Structures are given as structure tokens and as C-alpha cells.
Amino acid sequence: MRRFLKPLPILLIACLLIVSAGFVKSNDLFFQIKKQLTIFSDVYKQVAIRYVDEVPPEALMKVGINAMLDVLDPYTVFIDEGEQQQMEILSSGSYGGIGIDAGYRENQIVIIAPLDGYPAQRAGLQPGDVFLEIDGVDVSGLSPEEVQQLTIGDVGTKIDLKIERPGMQQPITFELERERIEINNISFSEFVETDRGIAYIQLSRFGQNTGEEIRSAILDFNESKNFNGLILDLRNNPGGLLNEALELIDKFIEPGVTVLETRGRIESVNSTYTSEEPALLEDLPVVVLMNNGSASASEVVAGAFQDLDRAVIIGEKSFGKGLVQTIEPLSYNTSLKITISQYYTPSGRSIQSVDYSDLESGAENGEAGNNRRKFLTKNGRPVYDGNGIEPDLTVTKANRSLLEVSLMRENYFFFFINQYLANNGEISKDLPDNAFKLFVSYLLEEDFDFMTPVDQHLEEISQNLEQFSQPGSAEANVEELKALLRDYKILQIYESEEFITKQLQFEWIAQTQNREERTRRMLQSDEDVLKAIELLSNTDQYQQILEP
Length: 548
What we know:
The chain contains 18 helices and 21 strands. The protein has helices at about 1-5, 5-50, 55-70, 80-90, 120, 145-150, 210-220, 240-250, 295-305, 400-410, 410-425, 435-445, 455-465, 475-495, 495-510, 515-525, 525-535, 540-545; strands at about 75-80, 95, 100-105, 110-115, 130-135, 135-140, 160-165, 170-175, 180, 185-195, 200-205, 230-235, 260-265, 270-275, 285-290, 310-315, 325-330, 335-345, 375, 380-385, 395. α7 packs parallel to α8 and α8 runs parallel beside α9. The relative contact order is 0.09.
């Protein structure tokens, strides 16, 4: 008996040491917090009282707080009393703006998604466009939330944007007019291939009741008795409420399956989420459409469906925002939006594409690159972490030319169709056959031009020639080159006939039909949707992707 009792004192001592170590560690942390707060308070007080120039205490403190948060990830931000109202406006889903969601990429603020049908999207702004200036204000150093706030204002007011687009050598400027932005969860829901029973749902965000709206749409489709496949469009969906993303997943996954994990430094924020309710259509073939504008909750859904081999992902790599934030109320009607954990898909991989953990330098470590880890889906397919969610099938989009960007940026399609409809009493359902020819004439009448690198070089040469008293034939040669460049630009218009005609068709539908008809017609030529229809119509190919 004694032989079994002897180890008890040793065990008790070991337990006491573990508890004491935890207490000392916790006590040391609080001591360090108290010490550093005391030092900061002393410095702040001395600067506010004794500095040679008067410093507003509020501004000084805000700079200090923002500087402290700048070494963390860009989604951890201080929300002061003046910004609190803007947060409430955004959360309500109704505000005056241009219809964009902003996010971070490599220390630059980019457009995550332009909202369909609103000024930013109509003018041709795209996911990945980098913000340089808003109304002449340099946005470098601002947070995505601060940039978002600069775009919000009274309906009808103007806003000037300067952006940088990957692959283009010069910035692009836009002048937009703010509109009332009303954001719906489901933007469009309809059968896109009736004979084959393929339905389509365009989900623009994860707001309140998203899960129930999805349930209702699925039940409506199922009433047709010919519901054989679903296309869930999460392109340009910036995310939203996590619980609604989990509600959506629940509609397609049997109960008791792990669909998401959140992991943080504090044990209380670590959670494992499992499906709970019976799936509505457990075996229904599903395709999820995704692009660079699909972020956060969209990536949670796409990641779960991919890891559980529940759907085929088509499109482009997602944005890669796998950080979880919560809003903590602070004193004097302020609050702190703070990152508390990260998302992990059912296979255990992280969604986050950028590492912000280097606190010493305050710089992001970039994408994981060759250090990405391999994981396996339910059926053994390889997937990788550290780079958002990558599609199972990639649909590559053609880059826009400078001509095409200029036509969309200046709203030439809108103004031409608007003028045509104003001058012609009869309105047909389809675009007139001679629309392209009329549009070219319209551009020439409007003295349409667009800047190219060659224009810049010729302008520099002209300025250099002005320094000479007798430029001679060189100036004439430059003018001849400019004339040849103008002819080349006109030729480019004719070479872009297919693109121009398509945009004129979209704008014609937008101004003569309702928004649903516009979406319906656009889907008929949508490459991602056509690829999804083709895949869902081929059961063997669909299964071969999920079960190689």
C-alpha cells in the first residue's frame, strides 16, 4: 500500500509547480502591461503639457493608438466616436456610396469587390485595383475602413478616384457619383438551364437571414421536380456574418461533420463548428463560382465544400482573408475591432494568405510560396494552405486593353445608349444592328482619346524640343508620329468590335430592362457560368474531379 502512496507527494508538488508557473506567467504579463502603460502615460502627459508647440491631446492619442495597431494586421483598428456611426451605416446595408469593398494586399489598399449594378462596377472598377487617391487625398497609410469611409457620403455628391491596375503602367482616374447602396443577400436566383434542371444563386454577401434565404431558394427550385444541379455564385462576395456562412453550409452537409475551426492565442476563442441540421439535398451536384473578390465568409463556405468534396470550385483564387475579428466596446462610445483568431477548413488548412506575425518589423511576410503545406480532402485530393482557396477548375480572363478601360472608365457606353434612347422613340428588346457603327461615329464626334505610354514619350519629346530655338524638322516628325498614333487608336476601336458590341448589349439591357433581366442576359455569355453548366451536365466529369 505504501508503495502506491509514496508518489502522491511528488504528484502534488508537480501540480503545485504547474499552477504556480501559470500564475507567475499571468502575473508577469499583467505586471508588464501595467509597467508599459505607466511609461506611456508619463510620456503622453509630458508631451501634451510641455512640448514646444501645443498638441491636441485627442489627436496625439489617436496617432499613438494607430501607430501601435499598425504593427499588427490591417484588420485590427480603433473606431473612434465619429466613425462609430459609419460602422452602423455599413452594418445596416444602406448608405450613400459607390458600391465597393476595400481590403489589404501587400501594404496596398485594393478593391475586394465592386457591387453589381452600382457606380464602381458600372465604371469598370475591378477586384485588385489599388487605391492611390480619393478626392485628392493620398490613401497610403490608411486602413481599409478609413478608405471605405472616404467613399461614403451624401447621395448625388461626386467622388474622384485614382487607382493603379496590375499590368498597366499608368494610374487610372475615375469620377463617380454616389448613390443609395442597398445590399441584398441574394442578388439573383433562377434556373439558368431549364431542360437540364440547373439552377443558379448569386449571393452578394452574408448578411442577416442568408441561411434562410438559401433554404427558401432551394425549396423553390425543388418544387419543379427537375432540380439536378446548383451553381452558387460567390464571386465578388466579400463575406459578412460567420454564423450565416455556417447556416448555408448546413443546408448541404449531413449533421455532425466538422466544417470549420477557429484558433487563437486564448483558449476561449478556439471553436470547432459542426453541421447540425439535416441537409436539404445531400446528393445534389453543386458548383461554387469564386474569384479574387471572394473573401472571408465566402472562403469559409468554399473551403468547407472543397475539403468535404461537396462541390467543385470554378473560377479564380480567392482573396485569402482568414482572420477573425470581433468588436470590443470601449469607453466614450469608441470601440476596437480586433483580430482574435484564424479560420481553418475541415482538412486543417488556413485560409489566410498573408502572414502579419512579424511584430518586430511591423511588416507582412507575404504569401507562403514554397512553404505551403499539403492537406487532403475527404476523398484524398491534395489541397494547400497559405494562399486562400484555389479553384478545382480555373477560368482565365483576358486582360482589358487601355482602350477598353478608357471606354468603361468614362462611361461612354452608358452615355451613348442614353443619348440613343433619348433620340429614338421606339425601343426594341435587342440592341440595334448598326449600334457599333453608330458608336464609332459617336466616339469620333466626342473626340475620344486615351493615353498610352507612346503618348507620354511623344509629349516628353515635344517638351524637350521646346528648349531649342529652331526645332526644325524634328517637331514635324513628332506631329507625324502623333497623327499615326491617332490612326492606330481608331484601328484599335475596330479591332475591339466584339468587346464593344458586348458592352453595348449589356448597357442596352441595363437601360431598357430591369435588373433581373440584365443579370439573366449577362449569364448567357458568362464564361464561368457556361463552364459550370457544362460540368453539371456531365455527371462522370463532375464525379471524376471530386473522386479522382
